[in-house]
Amino acid sequence: MYSKTMTAAIIALGFLATACDSPKTSVTPSGPVATIEEPAGETNLAQEAHQPKLPTEPAPVTAFVGATVFDATGNDPIEDAVIVLSRDRIVAVGPKAEVSVPDDAVVIDVTGKWIVPGLVDAHMHFFQSGGIYARPHVVDLRETRSYEEEVKALREDLPDTLRRYLVSGQTAVVDMGGPFWNFEVREKANGMLLAPRTAVSGPLVSTIAREKLDIGDPPIIKAETPDDARALVRKQLEQKPDLVKVWFIVSKEHSPERGLEQTVGIMRAAADEAHKGGVRVAVHATELVSAREALKAGADILVHSIDDEIIDDELISLMKEKNTILTPTLTVMEGYAEVLGNNPVLCEMDKKYGDPQVVKTWKDLSSVSPEPPEEGAKRQAKNDAKMAVMNENLMKLVEAEITIAAGTDAGNVGTLHGSALHHELEMMVKAGMSTKAVLIAATRNAAKVFAVDPEFGTLEKGKLADLLVLDADPLSDISNLGRISKIVKGGIVLDPNQILPPNPEWVVQKQVDAYNARDLDLFLSFYSKDAVIIRHPSGEVVARGTEKMRDVYMGLFKRAPKLKCRVLSRTTTGNMVVDHELVTGIEGRPYLHAVAIYEVNDGLITNVWFLPRDDD
After folding, report:
1. What is the DSSP secondary-structure string of 241-305?
2. How large is the angle between the packed helices 182-189 and 158-167, nearest 10 degrees?
3. Which fold is adopted by the domain 55-116+456-498?
4. Model-level pTM?
5. Given its phi and psi angles, is residue 446 left (phi above 0), alpha (psi -120 to 50 degrees) or beta?
6. For the domain bounded by 12-26+501-610, which CATH number is listed?
7. Is the pLDDT of residue 254 over 80?
8. Is residue 22 helix, strand or coil?
Protein backbone atom coordinates (compact mmCIF):
# COMPACT_ATOMS: atom_id res chain seq x y z
CA MET A 1 0.00 0.00 0.00
CA TYR A 2 1.37 3.38 -0.96
CA SER A 3 0.05 6.48 0.71
CA LYS A 4 1.87 9.65 -0.24
CA THR A 5 4.84 8.59 -2.31
CA MET A 6 5.36 7.09 -5.68
CA THR A 7 8.23 5.74 -7.64
CA ALA A 8 9.83 6.93 -10.72
CA ALA A 9 12.50 5.06 -12.46
CA ILE A 10 15.45 6.50 -14.15
CA ILE A 11 16.54 4.63 -17.08
CA ALA A 12 18.93 7.00 -18.34
CA LEU A 13 22.43 5.87 -18.89
CA GLY A 14 20.92 2.43 -19.06
CA PHE A 15 20.37 1.93 -15.38
CA LEU A 16 17.43 0.61 -13.45
CA ALA A 17 15.27 2.14 -10.89
CA THR A 18 13.66 1.38 -7.61
CA ALA A 19 11.00 3.34 -6.00
CA CYS A 20 9.58 3.40 -2.54
CA ASP A 21 6.56 4.84 -0.86
CA SER A 22 6.20 6.73 2.33
CA PRO A 23 4.77 5.18 5.47
CA LYS A 24 1.09 4.53 5.31
CA THR A 25 -1.38 6.41 7.45
CA SER A 26 -1.66 4.72 10.81
CA VAL A 27 -4.91 3.02 11.65
CA THR A 28 -5.81 1.76 15.09
CA PRO A 29 -8.37 -1.04 15.38
CA SER A 30 -11.29 0.08 17.50
CA GLY A 31 -14.50 -1.80 18.13
CA PRO A 32 -16.04 -3.58 15.17
CA VAL A 33 -13.92 -1.80 12.55
CA ALA A 34 -10.61 -0.10 12.29
CA THR A 35 -10.88 3.59 13.13
CA ILE A 36 -10.37 5.45 9.89
CA GLU A 37 -8.50 8.65 10.58
CA GLU A 38 -8.18 11.28 7.87
CA PRO A 39 -5.39 13.78 8.41
CA ALA A 40 -6.19 17.47 8.49
CA GLY A 41 -4.27 19.13 5.66
CA GLU A 42 -1.25 17.32 4.24
CA THR A 43 -0.28 13.89 5.50
CA ASN A 44 3.46 14.43 5.65
CA LEU A 45 6.15 17.05 5.27
CA ALA A 46 7.49 15.52 2.07
CA GLN A 47 4.21 16.07 0.32
CA GLU A 48 3.88 19.64 1.57
CA ALA A 49 6.98 20.46 -0.47
CA HIS A 50 5.21 19.51 -3.72
CA GLN A 51 1.48 19.94 -3.16
CA PRO A 52 -0.66 22.70 -1.67
CA LYS A 53 -2.51 21.87 1.51
CA LEU A 54 -5.80 20.08 1.10
CA PRO A 55 -8.78 22.44 1.10
CA THR A 56 -11.27 21.89 3.90
CA GLU A 57 -14.29 23.29 2.08
CA PRO A 58 -15.31 24.32 -1.43
CA ALA A 59 -14.98 27.87 -2.69
CA PRO A 60 -18.17 29.96 -2.46
CA VAL A 61 -18.36 30.11 -6.26
CA THR A 62 -16.30 28.13 -8.79
CA ALA A 63 -16.51 28.25 -12.58
CA PHE A 64 -14.94 25.72 -14.97
CA VAL A 65 -14.60 27.38 -18.35
CA GLY A 66 -13.80 26.04 -21.83
CA ALA A 67 -14.10 22.25 -21.54
CA THR A 68 -16.32 19.87 -23.47
CA VAL A 69 -18.93 18.61 -20.99
CA PHE A 70 -20.53 15.17 -21.06
CA ASP A 71 -23.39 15.54 -18.57
CA ALA A 72 -24.61 11.88 -18.67
CA THR A 73 -28.23 12.94 -19.13
CA GLY A 74 -28.32 11.39 -22.60
CA ASN A 75 -27.72 14.70 -24.38
CA ASP A 76 -24.84 15.34 -26.75
CA PRO A 77 -21.61 16.74 -25.29
CA ILE A 78 -21.51 20.53 -24.79
CA GLU A 79 -18.50 22.14 -26.42
CA ASP A 80 -16.79 25.24 -24.97
CA ALA A 81 -18.93 24.91 -21.87
CA VAL A 82 -19.21 26.60 -18.49
CA ILE A 83 -20.05 24.82 -15.24
CA VAL A 84 -20.76 27.06 -12.25
CA LEU A 85 -20.69 25.69 -8.71
CA SER A 86 -22.06 27.27 -5.58
CA ARG A 87 -20.05 25.56 -2.86
CA ASP A 88 -20.95 21.85 -3.21
CA ARG A 89 -23.76 22.20 -5.77
CA ILE A 90 -23.98 22.74 -9.50
CA VAL A 91 -25.94 25.91 -10.30
CA ALA A 92 -25.44 26.16 -14.07
CA VAL A 93 -24.19 24.03 -16.99
CA GLY A 94 -24.20 25.06 -20.62
CA PRO A 95 -22.39 26.64 -23.55
CA LYS A 96 -20.21 29.64 -22.77
CA ALA A 97 -22.53 31.80 -24.86
CA GLU A 98 -25.46 30.97 -22.58
CA VAL A 99 -23.92 30.71 -19.09
CA SER A 100 -22.37 33.78 -17.52
CA VAL A 101 -19.47 33.51 -15.14
CA PRO A 102 -20.17 35.29 -11.81
CA ASP A 103 -17.80 38.15 -11.01
CA ASP A 104 -16.85 36.59 -7.66
CA ALA A 105 -16.12 33.12 -9.08
CA VAL A 106 -12.84 31.26 -8.80
CA VAL A 107 -12.33 30.67 -12.53
CA ILE A 108 -10.58 27.48 -13.65
CA ASP A 109 -9.61 27.46 -17.31
CA VAL A 110 -10.11 23.92 -18.66
CA THR A 111 -9.91 24.73 -22.36
CA GLY A 112 -9.21 21.60 -24.38
CA LYS A 113 -10.23 19.24 -21.58
CA TRP A 114 -13.35 17.15 -20.93
CA ILE A 115 -15.60 17.13 -17.88
CA VAL A 116 -17.73 14.12 -16.90
CA PRO A 117 -19.60 13.21 -13.72
CA GLY A 118 -17.65 11.37 -11.03
CA LEU A 119 -17.64 7.63 -11.64
CA VAL A 120 -19.54 5.18 -9.42
CA ASP A 121 -18.64 1.55 -8.72
CA ALA A 122 -22.07 0.06 -8.06
CA HIS A 123 -20.74 -3.26 -6.75
CA MET A 124 -17.67 -3.73 -4.55
CA HIS A 125 -16.80 -5.25 -1.14
CA PHE A 126 -14.67 -3.70 1.60
CA PHE A 127 -14.35 -7.03 3.46
CA GLN A 128 -12.10 -8.44 0.72
CA SER A 129 -8.65 -7.23 -0.30
CA GLY A 130 -8.48 -8.57 -3.86
CA GLY A 131 -5.49 -10.68 -2.80
CA ILE A 132 -5.03 -14.43 -3.00
CA TYR A 133 -5.90 -14.87 0.71
CA ALA A 134 -9.27 -13.08 0.45
CA ARG A 135 -11.52 -16.10 -0.18
CA PRO A 136 -10.29 -19.26 1.61
CA HIS A 137 -13.32 -21.22 0.42
CA VAL A 138 -12.05 -20.68 -3.16
CA VAL A 139 -8.33 -21.26 -2.53
CA ASP A 140 -7.41 -22.21 1.02
CA LEU A 141 -3.99 -20.85 1.95
CA ARG A 142 -4.70 -20.34 5.66
CA GLU A 143 -1.62 -22.32 6.65
CA THR A 144 0.43 -19.58 4.99
CA ARG A 145 -1.66 -16.60 6.11
CA SER A 146 -4.61 -16.97 8.45
CA TYR A 147 -7.91 -15.44 7.47
CA GLU A 148 -7.84 -13.47 10.72
CA GLU A 149 -4.55 -11.86 9.64
CA GLU A 150 -5.98 -11.13 6.21
CA VAL A 151 -9.03 -9.34 7.62
CA LYS A 152 -6.99 -7.41 10.20
CA ALA A 153 -4.67 -6.11 7.47
CA LEU A 154 -7.41 -5.05 5.10
CA ARG A 155 -9.21 -3.22 7.91
CA GLU A 156 -6.04 -1.36 8.78
CA ASP A 157 -5.63 -0.43 5.13
CA LEU A 158 -9.12 1.05 4.76
CA PRO A 159 -7.96 4.72 4.49
CA ASP A 160 -5.65 3.68 1.66
CA THR A 161 -8.41 1.66 -0.02
CA LEU A 162 -10.80 4.60 0.12
CA ARG A 163 -8.21 6.89 -1.47
CA ARG A 164 -7.61 4.36 -4.24
CA TYR A 165 -11.27 4.66 -5.23
CA LEU A 166 -11.26 8.46 -5.21
CA VAL A 167 -7.96 8.86 -7.08
CA SER A 168 -9.27 6.44 -9.73
CA GLY A 169 -12.16 8.83 -10.34
CA GLN A 170 -14.84 7.13 -8.29
CA THR A 171 -16.64 9.70 -6.19
CA ALA A 172 -19.11 7.08 -4.95
CA VAL A 173 -19.21 3.32 -4.33
CA VAL A 174 -21.76 0.74 -3.28
CA ASP A 175 -20.59 -2.05 -0.99
CA MET A 176 -22.78 -4.99 -1.94
CA GLY A 177 -22.49 -6.84 1.34
CA GLY A 178 -20.10 -7.52 4.15
CA PRO A 179 -19.79 -7.87 7.93
CA PHE A 180 -21.70 -5.60 10.27
CA TRP A 181 -18.57 -3.43 10.54
CA ASN A 182 -19.51 -2.27 7.03
CA PHE A 183 -21.87 0.22 8.63
CA GLU A 184 -19.08 1.93 10.53
CA VAL A 185 -17.02 2.07 7.34
CA ARG A 186 -19.93 3.93 5.73
CA GLU A 187 -20.13 6.39 8.61
CA LYS A 188 -16.40 7.11 8.55
CA ALA A 189 -16.08 7.28 4.76
CA ASN A 190 -18.99 9.68 4.40
CA GLY A 191 -17.31 12.04 6.85
CA MET A 192 -14.00 12.11 4.97
CA LEU A 193 -12.77 14.19 2.06
CA LEU A 194 -10.36 11.60 0.68
CA ALA A 195 -12.98 8.89 0.26
CA PRO A 196 -15.85 8.17 -2.10
CA ARG A 197 -19.45 8.61 -0.98
CA THR A 198 -20.34 5.19 0.36
CA ALA A 199 -23.53 3.12 0.46
CA VAL A 200 -23.52 -0.32 2.05
CA SER A 201 -25.38 -3.54 2.66
CA GLY A 202 -24.80 -5.73 5.66
CA PRO A 203 -24.14 -9.49 5.63
CA LEU A 204 -25.42 -11.32 2.58
CA VAL A 205 -28.57 -13.30 3.26
CA SER A 206 -27.55 -16.50 1.53
CA THR A 207 -29.00 -19.78 0.40
CA ILE A 208 -25.55 -21.38 0.74
CA ALA A 209 -22.96 -21.32 3.52
CA ARG A 210 -19.40 -19.98 3.56
CA GLU A 211 -18.15 -21.12 6.99
CA LYS A 212 -14.48 -20.32 6.31
CA LEU A 213 -15.35 -16.60 6.18
CA ASP A 214 -16.91 -16.63 9.65
CA ILE A 215 -14.45 -15.32 12.23
CA GLY A 216 -17.08 -13.72 14.46
CA ASP A 217 -18.75 -11.16 12.18
CA PRO A 218 -19.42 -13.08 8.97
CA PRO A 219 -19.99 -11.34 5.64
CA ILE A 220 -22.27 -14.15 4.41
CA ILE A 221 -24.92 -15.85 6.55
CA LYS A 222 -26.96 -18.83 5.40
CA ALA A 223 -30.71 -18.69 5.98
CA GLU A 224 -32.05 -22.18 6.55
CA THR A 225 -35.70 -21.12 6.42
CA PRO A 226 -37.84 -18.13 5.39
CA ASP A 227 -38.10 -17.18 9.07
CA ASP A 228 -34.29 -17.13 9.27
CA ALA A 229 -34.19 -14.79 6.29
CA ARG A 230 -36.69 -12.40 7.87
CA ALA A 231 -34.72 -12.34 11.12
CA LEU A 232 -31.45 -11.63 9.31
CA VAL A 233 -33.02 -8.76 7.36
CA ARG A 234 -34.62 -7.27 10.48
CA LYS A 235 -31.24 -7.27 12.22
CA GLN A 236 -29.74 -5.36 9.29
CA LEU A 237 -32.60 -2.87 9.16
CA GLU A 238 -31.59 -1.69 12.61
CA GLN A 239 -28.43 -0.29 10.97
CA LYS A 240 -30.36 1.45 8.16
CA PRO A 241 -28.72 -0.34 5.22
CA ASP A 242 -28.82 1.27 1.79
CA LEU A 243 -29.59 -2.13 0.28
CA VAL A 244 -30.23 -5.69 1.41
CA LYS A 245 -28.21 -8.26 -0.53
CA VAL A 246 -29.33 -11.84 -1.15
CA TRP A 247 -26.99 -14.53 -2.47
CA PHE A 248 -29.53 -16.63 -4.35
CA ILE A 249 -28.42 -20.02 -5.68
CA VAL A 250 -31.07 -22.51 -6.75
CA SER A 251 -29.15 -25.09 -8.77
CA LYS A 252 -28.77 -28.59 -7.36
CA GLU A 253 -25.01 -28.27 -7.80
CA HIS A 254 -24.87 -25.58 -5.11
CA SER A 255 -28.01 -26.27 -3.10
CA PRO A 256 -28.66 -30.03 -3.29
CA GLU A 257 -30.60 -30.30 -0.04
CA ARG A 258 -33.40 -27.96 -1.07
CA GLY A 259 -35.94 -27.92 -3.82
CA LEU A 260 -36.60 -24.84 -5.93
CA GLU A 261 -39.70 -23.76 -4.02
CA GLN A 262 -37.95 -23.92 -0.63
CA THR A 263 -35.09 -21.79 -1.93
CA VAL A 264 -37.43 -19.28 -3.55
CA GLY A 265 -39.31 -19.07 -0.26
CA ILE A 266 -36.17 -17.82 1.46
CA MET A 267 -35.62 -15.23 -1.28
CA ARG A 268 -39.25 -14.10 -1.11
CA ALA A 269 -39.16 -13.70 2.67
CA ALA A 270 -35.95 -11.63 2.58
CA ALA A 271 -37.34 -9.33 -0.11
CA ASP A 272 -40.66 -8.90 1.65
CA GLU A 273 -39.02 -7.99 4.95
CA ALA A 274 -36.62 -5.54 3.29
CA HIS A 275 -39.40 -3.83 1.37
CA LYS A 276 -41.41 -3.46 4.58
CA GLY A 277 -38.43 -1.54 5.90
CA GLY A 278 -38.30 0.65 2.80
CA VAL A 279 -35.06 -0.88 1.50
CA ARG A 280 -34.40 -2.23 -1.97
CA VAL A 281 -33.07 -5.74 -2.58
CA ALA A 282 -30.04 -6.62 -4.68
CA VAL A 283 -29.68 -10.26 -5.66
CA HIS A 284 -26.69 -12.32 -6.74
CA ALA A 285 -28.23 -14.46 -9.48
CA THR A 286 -25.93 -15.84 -12.17
CA GLU A 287 -28.27 -18.60 -13.37
CA LEU A 288 -31.18 -17.89 -15.70
CA VAL A 289 -33.60 -19.72 -13.42
CA SER A 290 -32.38 -17.90 -10.30
CA ALA A 291 -32.60 -14.50 -11.99
CA ARG A 292 -36.14 -15.19 -13.16
CA GLU A 293 -37.29 -16.46 -9.77
CA ALA A 294 -35.53 -13.62 -7.94
CA LEU A 295 -37.44 -11.03 -9.92
CA LYS A 296 -40.73 -12.79 -9.27
CA ALA A 297 -39.86 -12.91 -5.58
CA GLY A 298 -39.14 -9.19 -5.31
CA ALA A 299 -35.58 -8.40 -6.45
CA ASP A 300 -34.97 -4.78 -7.46
CA ILE A 301 -31.38 -5.08 -8.67
CA LEU A 302 -29.62 -8.05 -10.24
CA VAL A 303 -25.88 -8.23 -9.69
CA HIS A 304 -23.69 -10.18 -12.11
CA SER A 305 -24.48 -11.32 -15.61
CA ILE A 306 -26.23 -14.60 -16.23
CA ASP A 307 -23.55 -16.99 -17.41
CA ASP A 308 -25.20 -20.42 -17.73
CA GLU A 309 -27.42 -19.81 -20.76
CA ILE A 310 -28.73 -17.11 -23.07
CA ILE A 311 -31.50 -15.05 -21.51
CA ASP A 312 -35.03 -15.39 -22.82
CA ASP A 313 -37.93 -13.04 -23.55
CA GLU A 314 -39.61 -13.89 -20.25
CA LEU A 315 -36.69 -12.55 -18.24
CA ILE A 316 -36.44 -9.40 -20.36
CA SER A 317 -40.17 -8.77 -19.92
CA LEU A 318 -39.86 -9.19 -16.15
CA MET A 319 -36.94 -6.77 -16.03
CA LYS A 320 -38.85 -4.20 -18.05
CA GLU A 321 -41.96 -4.60 -15.91
CA LYS A 322 -40.03 -4.14 -12.66
CA ASN A 323 -37.57 -1.46 -13.91
CA THR A 324 -34.73 -3.75 -12.88
CA ILE A 325 -31.14 -2.53 -12.79
CA LEU A 326 -28.38 -4.98 -13.71
CA THR A 327 -24.69 -4.70 -12.85
CA PRO A 328 -22.85 -7.11 -15.18
CA THR A 329 -19.50 -7.32 -13.25
CA LEU A 330 -17.63 -8.77 -16.23
CA THR A 331 -14.16 -8.33 -14.79
CA VAL A 332 -14.44 -10.44 -11.65
CA MET A 333 -14.57 -13.85 -13.32
CA GLU A 334 -11.62 -12.94 -15.48
CA GLY A 335 -9.70 -11.87 -12.37
CA TYR A 336 -10.19 -15.26 -10.72
CA ALA A 337 -9.25 -17.16 -13.87
CA GLU A 338 -6.07 -15.16 -14.45
CA VAL A 339 -4.78 -15.16 -10.87
CA LEU A 340 -5.60 -18.81 -10.16
CA GLY A 341 -4.04 -19.68 -13.50
CA ASN A 342 -0.88 -17.74 -12.53
CA ASN A 343 -1.37 -15.37 -15.46
CA PRO A 344 -2.68 -12.05 -14.10
CA VAL A 345 -3.06 -9.19 -16.56
CA LEU A 346 -3.12 -5.61 -15.26
CA CYS A 347 -4.84 -2.74 -17.04
CA GLU A 348 -3.17 0.67 -17.05
CA MET A 349 -5.08 1.92 -14.01
CA ASP A 350 -4.31 -1.30 -12.12
CA LYS A 351 -0.63 -0.59 -12.65
CA LYS A 352 -1.01 3.06 -11.70
CA TYR A 353 -3.25 2.89 -8.62
CA GLY A 354 -3.92 -0.76 -7.78
CA ASP A 355 -2.57 -1.82 -4.38
CA PRO A 356 0.89 -3.27 -5.15
CA GLN A 357 0.93 -5.28 -1.92
CA VAL A 358 -2.23 -7.06 -3.04
CA VAL A 359 -0.75 -7.72 -6.48
CA LYS A 360 2.31 -9.25 -4.80
CA THR A 361 0.10 -11.84 -3.09
CA TRP A 362 -0.97 -13.16 -6.48
CA LYS A 363 2.58 -14.35 -7.04
CA ASP A 364 2.47 -16.30 -3.78
CA LEU A 365 0.10 -18.84 -5.28
CA SER A 366 2.60 -20.44 -7.65
CA SER A 367 5.02 -21.21 -4.82
CA VAL A 368 2.57 -21.90 -1.98
CA SER A 369 0.00 -23.88 -3.93
CA PRO A 370 1.28 -24.62 -7.45
CA GLU A 371 -1.30 -25.70 -10.00
CA PRO A 372 -0.55 -27.88 -13.03
CA PRO A 373 -0.64 -25.77 -16.21
CA GLU A 374 -3.41 -27.92 -17.64
CA GLU A 375 -5.71 -26.97 -14.73
CA GLY A 376 -5.13 -23.29 -15.38
CA ALA A 377 -5.87 -23.85 -19.06
CA LYS A 378 -9.15 -25.60 -18.20
CA ARG A 379 -10.16 -22.76 -15.91
CA GLN A 380 -9.38 -20.17 -18.57
CA ALA A 381 -11.36 -22.12 -21.18
CA LYS A 382 -14.33 -22.32 -18.82
CA ASN A 383 -14.08 -18.59 -18.15
CA ASP A 384 -13.90 -17.80 -21.87
CA ALA A 385 -17.04 -19.85 -22.53
CA LYS A 386 -18.95 -18.12 -19.75
CA MET A 387 -17.69 -14.72 -20.84
CA ALA A 388 -19.10 -15.28 -24.32
CA VAL A 389 -22.52 -15.98 -22.79
CA MET A 390 -22.26 -12.97 -20.47
CA ASN A 391 -21.33 -10.63 -23.31
CA GLU A 392 -24.21 -11.83 -25.49
CA ASN A 393 -26.63 -11.46 -22.60
CA LEU A 394 -25.37 -7.97 -21.83
CA MET A 395 -25.98 -6.83 -25.39
CA LYS A 396 -29.48 -8.36 -25.43
CA LEU A 397 -30.30 -6.29 -22.35
CA VAL A 398 -28.75 -3.14 -23.81
CA GLU A 399 -30.85 -3.56 -26.95
CA ALA A 400 -33.92 -4.04 -24.76
CA GLU A 401 -33.08 -0.75 -22.98
CA ILE A 402 -32.66 -2.35 -19.57
CA THR A 403 -30.78 -0.10 -17.13
CA ILE A 404 -27.16 -1.25 -16.97
CA ALA A 405 -25.00 0.00 -14.07
CA ALA A 406 -21.24 -0.46 -13.93
CA GLY A 407 -19.84 -2.47 -11.04
CA THR A 408 -16.76 -4.62 -10.51
CA ASP A 409 -17.24 -6.90 -7.48
CA ALA A 410 -13.86 -5.50 -6.40
CA GLY A 411 -12.22 -7.19 -3.45
CA ASN A 412 -12.63 -10.65 -4.94
CA VAL A 413 -9.40 -12.42 -5.86
CA GLY A 414 -7.87 -10.65 -8.85
CA THR A 415 -10.16 -7.60 -8.81
CA LEU A 416 -8.46 -4.55 -7.32
CA HIS A 417 -10.15 -1.81 -5.35
CA GLY A 418 -10.50 1.43 -7.29
CA SER A 419 -8.64 0.69 -10.49
CA ALA A 420 -10.76 -2.31 -11.51
CA LEU A 421 -13.65 -0.13 -12.66
CA HIS A 422 -11.58 1.10 -15.59
CA HIS A 423 -11.00 -2.48 -16.72
CA GLU A 424 -14.71 -3.21 -16.29
CA LEU A 425 -15.61 -0.29 -18.56
CA GLU A 426 -13.12 -1.44 -21.17
CA MET A 427 -14.70 -4.91 -21.07
CA MET A 428 -18.18 -3.43 -21.49
CA VAL A 429 -17.02 -1.63 -24.63
CA LYS A 430 -15.36 -4.82 -25.86
CA ALA A 431 -18.68 -6.64 -25.35
CA GLY A 432 -20.32 -4.22 -27.80
CA MET A 433 -21.61 -1.28 -25.77
CA SER A 434 -20.95 2.23 -27.08
CA THR A 435 -18.63 4.45 -25.08
CA LYS A 436 -21.55 6.79 -24.44
CA ALA A 437 -23.66 3.96 -23.01
CA VAL A 438 -20.75 2.79 -20.86
CA LEU A 439 -20.17 6.30 -19.51
CA ILE A 440 -23.84 6.55 -18.56
CA ALA A 441 -23.64 3.10 -16.95
CA ALA A 442 -20.72 4.28 -14.81
CA THR A 443 -22.35 7.57 -13.79
CA ARG A 444 -26.10 8.12 -14.01
CA ASN A 445 -27.12 4.47 -13.88
CA ALA A 446 -24.64 3.39 -11.21
CA ALA A 447 -25.84 6.30 -9.04
CA LYS A 448 -29.32 4.76 -9.21
CA VAL A 449 -27.94 1.72 -7.40
CA PHE A 450 -26.53 4.01 -4.71
CA ALA A 451 -29.93 5.64 -4.15
CA VAL A 452 -33.41 5.65 -5.67
CA ASP A 453 -33.17 9.41 -6.24
CA PRO A 454 -29.42 10.12 -6.30
CA GLU A 455 -27.99 13.60 -5.80
CA PHE A 456 -25.13 12.91 -8.22
CA GLY A 457 -24.40 10.95 -11.37
CA THR A 458 -25.27 13.69 -13.85
CA LEU A 459 -24.07 17.25 -14.33
CA GLU A 460 -27.27 19.22 -13.84
CA LYS A 461 -28.43 22.21 -11.85
CA GLY A 462 -29.01 21.26 -8.22
CA LYS A 463 -26.88 18.11 -8.27
CA LEU A 464 -23.84 17.62 -6.04
CA ALA A 465 -20.66 18.89 -7.65
CA ASP A 466 -18.92 15.53 -8.13
CA LEU A 467 -17.02 15.55 -11.42
CA LEU A 468 -13.81 14.68 -13.22
CA VAL A 469 -11.68 16.92 -15.42
CA LEU A 470 -10.01 14.76 -18.10
CA ASP A 471 -7.12 15.45 -20.43
CA ALA A 472 -8.71 13.58 -23.35
CA ASP A 473 -12.03 12.59 -24.89
CA PRO A 474 -13.55 9.49 -23.22
CA LEU A 475 -16.10 9.06 -26.00
CA SER A 476 -13.36 8.40 -28.53
CA ASP A 477 -11.55 5.97 -26.20
CA ILE A 478 -12.97 4.80 -22.88
CA SER A 479 -9.45 4.41 -21.48
CA ASN A 480 -9.21 8.21 -21.48
CA LEU A 481 -11.27 8.10 -18.29
CA GLY A 482 -7.96 7.28 -16.67
CA ARG A 483 -6.37 10.54 -17.86
CA ILE A 484 -7.61 12.50 -14.85
CA SER A 485 -6.46 16.08 -14.41
CA LYS A 486 -8.69 17.07 -11.49
CA ILE A 487 -11.17 15.31 -9.23
CA VAL A 488 -13.96 17.43 -7.79
CA LYS A 489 -15.90 16.06 -4.85
CA GLY A 490 -18.62 18.18 -3.34
CA GLY A 491 -17.16 21.24 -5.05
CA ILE A 492 -13.67 20.70 -3.59
CA VAL A 493 -11.08 20.61 -6.37
CA LEU A 494 -8.33 18.02 -5.86
CA ASP A 495 -5.20 17.13 -7.76
CA PRO A 496 -4.80 13.33 -8.01
CA ASN A 497 -1.41 13.50 -6.26
CA GLN A 498 -3.08 15.15 -3.29
CA ILE A 499 -5.13 11.99 -2.90
CA LEU A 500 -2.61 9.26 -3.67
CA PRO A 501 0.52 9.21 -5.85
CA PRO A 502 0.83 6.56 -8.56
CA ASN A 503 2.55 3.29 -7.75
CA PRO A 504 6.34 3.10 -7.95
CA GLU A 505 6.48 0.47 -10.67
CA TRP A 506 4.06 2.40 -12.86
CA VAL A 507 6.19 5.54 -12.65
CA VAL A 508 9.35 3.55 -13.27
CA GLN A 509 7.93 1.99 -16.40
CA LYS A 510 6.55 5.27 -17.67
CA GLN A 511 10.00 6.76 -17.29
CA VAL A 512 11.51 3.86 -19.19
CA ASP A 513 9.02 4.57 -21.96
CA ALA A 514 9.95 8.26 -22.00
CA TYR A 515 13.65 7.39 -22.06
CA ASN A 516 13.22 5.06 -25.02
CA ALA A 517 11.06 7.66 -26.79
CA ARG A 518 13.74 10.37 -26.26
CA ASP A 519 11.05 12.56 -24.63
CA LEU A 520 13.37 14.51 -22.37
CA ASP A 521 10.69 16.76 -20.85
CA LEU A 522 8.50 13.81 -19.95
CA PHE A 523 11.52 11.91 -18.66
CA LEU A 524 12.51 14.75 -16.33
CA SER A 525 8.94 15.25 -15.14
CA PHE A 526 9.35 12.18 -12.94
CA TYR A 527 12.13 13.79 -10.89
CA SER A 528 12.07 16.28 -8.06
CA LYS A 529 13.83 19.53 -8.94
CA ASP A 530 16.65 18.68 -6.52
CA ALA A 531 17.00 14.98 -7.44
CA VAL A 532 20.48 13.52 -6.98
CA ILE A 533 22.03 10.74 -9.08
CA ILE A 534 24.93 9.01 -7.38
CA ARG A 535 27.36 6.25 -8.33
CA HIS A 536 27.54 3.60 -5.62
CA PRO A 537 29.73 2.94 -3.67
CA SER A 538 32.08 5.80 -4.64
CA GLY A 539 29.54 8.50 -3.87
CA GLU A 540 30.35 10.35 -7.12
CA VAL A 541 27.47 12.69 -8.05
CA VAL A 542 26.47 12.14 -11.68
CA ALA A 543 23.91 14.96 -11.64
CA ARG A 544 22.22 17.15 -9.05
CA GLY A 545 18.91 18.73 -9.98
CA THR A 546 16.81 18.47 -13.13
CA GLU A 547 18.63 21.31 -14.93
CA LYS A 548 21.92 19.44 -14.72
CA MET A 549 20.15 16.21 -15.66
CA ARG A 550 18.80 17.90 -18.77
CA ASP A 551 22.32 18.67 -19.92
CA VAL A 552 23.55 15.14 -19.14
CA TYR A 553 20.75 13.29 -20.88
CA MET A 554 20.48 15.64 -23.83
CA GLY A 555 24.11 14.90 -24.55
CA LEU A 556 23.58 11.18 -24.05
CA PHE A 557 20.66 11.06 -26.49
CA LYS A 558 22.67 12.96 -29.11
CA ARG A 559 25.68 10.66 -28.80
CA ALA A 560 23.62 7.47 -28.87
CA PRO A 561 20.56 7.96 -31.12
CA LYS A 562 19.76 4.22 -31.07
CA LEU A 563 19.96 3.91 -27.29
CA LYS A 564 17.37 1.52 -25.89
CA CYS A 565 16.73 0.10 -22.45
CA ARG A 566 15.03 -3.22 -21.79
CA VAL A 567 14.05 -4.14 -18.23
CA LEU A 568 15.14 -7.71 -17.50
CA SER A 569 13.88 -7.84 -13.92
CA ARG A 570 12.44 -5.50 -11.33
CA THR A 571 12.12 -5.69 -7.57
CA THR A 572 10.03 -3.24 -5.58
CA THR A 573 10.10 -2.77 -1.84
CA GLY A 574 8.09 0.14 -0.52
CA ASN A 575 9.23 3.23 -2.38
CA MET A 576 12.45 1.64 -3.59
CA VAL A 577 12.56 0.04 -7.04
CA VAL A 578 15.56 -1.90 -8.29
CA ASP A 579 15.83 -2.60 -12.00
CA HIS A 580 18.23 -4.82 -13.91
CA GLU A 581 18.44 -3.56 -17.48
CA LEU A 582 19.89 -4.52 -20.79
CA VAL A 583 21.04 -1.39 -22.62
CA THR A 584 21.81 -1.39 -26.34
CA GLY A 585 22.74 1.23 -28.92
CA ILE A 586 25.85 2.45 -27.11
CA GLU A 587 28.65 3.51 -29.39
CA GLY A 588 31.62 1.19 -29.27
CA ARG A 589 29.98 -1.67 -27.40
CA PRO A 590 27.19 -4.12 -28.28
CA TYR A 591 25.33 -3.85 -24.99
CA LEU A 592 25.71 -3.56 -21.24
CA HIS A 593 23.94 -4.77 -18.15
CA ALA A 594 23.14 -2.13 -15.55
CA VAL A 595 21.45 -1.90 -12.17
CA ALA A 596 20.06 1.17 -10.44
CA ILE A 597 18.14 1.86 -7.25
CA TYR A 598 15.58 4.63 -7.17
CA GLU A 599 14.04 6.32 -4.16
CA VAL A 600 10.78 8.08 -4.87
CA ASN A 601 8.95 10.40 -2.52
CA ASP A 602 5.61 12.06 -3.16
CA GLY A 603 5.56 10.82 -6.73
CA LEU A 604 8.96 12.17 -7.74
CA ILE A 605 12.38 10.56 -7.84
CA THR A 606 14.56 12.11 -5.18
CA ASN A 607 17.63 9.84 -5.22
CA VAL A 608 19.18 7.38 -7.65
CA TRP A 609 22.10 5.06 -6.98
CA PHE A 610 23.90 3.47 -9.92
CA LEU A 611 25.54 0.18 -8.93
CA PRO A 612 28.90 -0.82 -10.38
CA ARG A 613 28.78 -2.44 -13.83
CA ASP A 614 30.91 -5.37 -14.91
CA ASP A 615 32.99 -3.01 -17.06
CA ASP A 616 33.46 -0.37 -14.34
Report:
1. -SEEEEE---STTT-TTS-HHHHHHHHHHHHHHHHHTT-EEEEE--SHHHHHHHHHHT-SEEES-
2. 60
3. Urease, subunit C; domain 1 (2.30.40)
4. 0.90
5. alpha
6. 3.10.450.50
7. no
8. coil
